[in-house]
Amino acid sequence: MKIKTILFSAAGILVLAAVAVVGSGYLRSFGIAGEVEVPTLATLVPDRPDLGQTVRAELEFELPLCRSIEHVVFEPGDGAVAVGEPRIRRGAWKWSRQEWKISGDFRCFRPGTVQPGVLTVELSPAESGTQPELFTAAIPDFEVNPGEAGSGNELMLAGAVDAARNHVGYGWFWLLLLLPAILIWWIIRRRNSRLAVELPPWERALQALGTLREELANHRIPLETGFARLTDLVRNYLEKRFEIPASTRTTSEFLSDLDRKSSPLPPAQRPFLRDFLLAADQVKFAKAPPDTTLLNDALSRAEELIESTRITPEGEEGGEQ
Q1: Helix (H) or strand (E) holding 54
Q2: How would residue 244 be classed by pLDDT, with cut points 50, 70 and 90?
Q3: Distance (Å, whole) CA 66 – CA 26
Q4: Distance CA 271, CA 292 (A)
């Protein structure tokens, strides 16, 4: 009986100690929530691939336990195409911090130099009530070997994409932290139990515009990325607001739809969209130099577009019903 009591007591002490360690680390993470450093340059594996070979861009950094990665956008440079979606994995736990690993695969479709790309990382807000934080890391340019032609009449094909599931091995000792994990989950649920009302598309779009303005003002993203982000933002808003497939159509297809009589977009906003989308395509595909004045004007016009197409309560002036 004494042995059983001793064992239960020892188990209880271990659980309490684990709760104290994990809980104190989590609470401490709120004090360092703003201390985030995301590398500005991703690493490539391999750094000089053969034509058709899969290349992986990787990014590793630490975050306070109270913060996490919300979303990743992976944009390879000219000369390469993405393979699948970027992967987000957790690494080692370090009391108040957690390692994170981001990787994205792409393939090169021509020999020579592949231009730099961009990895955009969206982190959860540092404080409640604030906007998510965005960081960008460059995918460096690199050279692609043309490869050797195979002998005979058979062509060599690129290898298949490895579709293995992401897996992070934490070790058997994580089982001892099951109870603390449940406790932390409960604390997080309580902390995030404030009304999580789904914002309408115009409110989400206006918040995203504000974040984009701040990133551009602080020179944290290049103008080219600003044009691409604003284009996606406007397309996504129109798709959510009017239920039109704006994000899945080419610019010419979308502009053709705008000219139809059945188009739900107000006629006053169509010239702006046409000029802006064509200018954005010039920057994105024709490598035209980005224009700061044009981008700032596009930001203001995009805000006018959203404000003029938002749904307002009956009787309130402005917007469309």
Answers
A1: strand 54-64
A2: confident
A3: 6
A4: 20
